[in-house]
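pinned: reference chain
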Amino acid sequence: MMSMELIATKICKVSDIGIYNNLFGGTMLSWIDEAGGTMASVKCCTPSMITLKIDEVVFKQPVKANEHIRIYGKIDRLGTTSISLYLEARRFDFQKHEEDMVCSTRMTFVRIDKDGNAIPIEKKIRDKYKNY
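pinned: its structure tokens
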């Protein structure tokens, strides 16, 4: 089983803050989607990956302005045309050198052709990750 990889780092800016002085949830989802899509493209060696599905996301802790968020991912499953990733967003505390989970989810990305139709991920890639 593949371990979690650091795939993105973000800083919560004042412009990212919504009501109650917390990071707007939609911004976090955007960060996770971008990081997951990038990881899917890298693992599948193609820029033609689109988001198919986002599983339940539970926001466990708020994020405040100036906090650093690290997004981690790992392959959950690799199919013929799609890849599912497990993703976690963690707040990093520089003073304690600790991370706290903010949210997690599973996302599925699909490889598409120029017309938007699902096409197979190359066999050599599927063989490389055949245990997923």
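why pinned: The two ends are 8 Å apart (CA to CA). Strands lie at 5-11, 49-54, 68-78, 82-93, 98-111.
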